[in-house]
Amino acid sequence: xxxxxxxKILNEQIIKEGYSSNLYLSMASWADKEGYAGIAQWLxxxxxxxxxxxxxxxxxxxxxxxxxxxxxxxxPPSSFPGIKELFNEVLAHEQYIxxxxxxxxxxxxxxxxxxxxxxxxxxxxxxxxxxxSVQIVIDxxxxxxxxxxxxxxxxxxxxxxxxEE
Length: 165
Ligand code: OFO
Description:
This protein has a single domain (4-159), classed as Ferritin, core subunit, four-helix bundle (Ferritin, Up-down Bundle), CATH 1.20.1260.10. The chain contains 5 helices and no strands. It is mainly alpha-helical. The radius of gyration is 17 Å and the shape is elongated. Helix 1 (4-33) runs antiparallel to helix 2 (37-63) and helix 4 (114-144) runs antiparallel to helix 5. It binds hydroxy diiron-OXO moiety. Hydroxy diiron-OXO moiety binds next to helix 1, helix 2 and helix 3.
């Protein structure tokens, strides 16, 4: 059984994971429209993965006797200043999500909810991987420089966004 505080913070994470999915979907659509097929593919895959994260929270809350609420999401931006800026935004967003996962971990300790603490550890590991995978992309971008976007786009095509969920 979840305490009210834990149920609330887990429901808040549904909003964040769902927004992440829509944000990356919007980025993917923009990249696609701009002609970056590889970058779009990476972002579409990332959006799918975020949806599975949201589903994990929905299923866990309900399994533990709570009620997972399906929210409306804020509208994500629909255009981006450039590829480099876009990936910097992805990294900043993932760092923000890591912070919110850490807040959940801290609350589970405060509430002595060790079952949720154990469950949410998967996300602790996942966030390390998420940040690392975006950093790899940013490193590649820095190496290739602004003039070689075509090559970057081809290169990223084979890269999966993050680890499998
Ligand atoms: Fe769900 O990890 Fe990214 O946001």
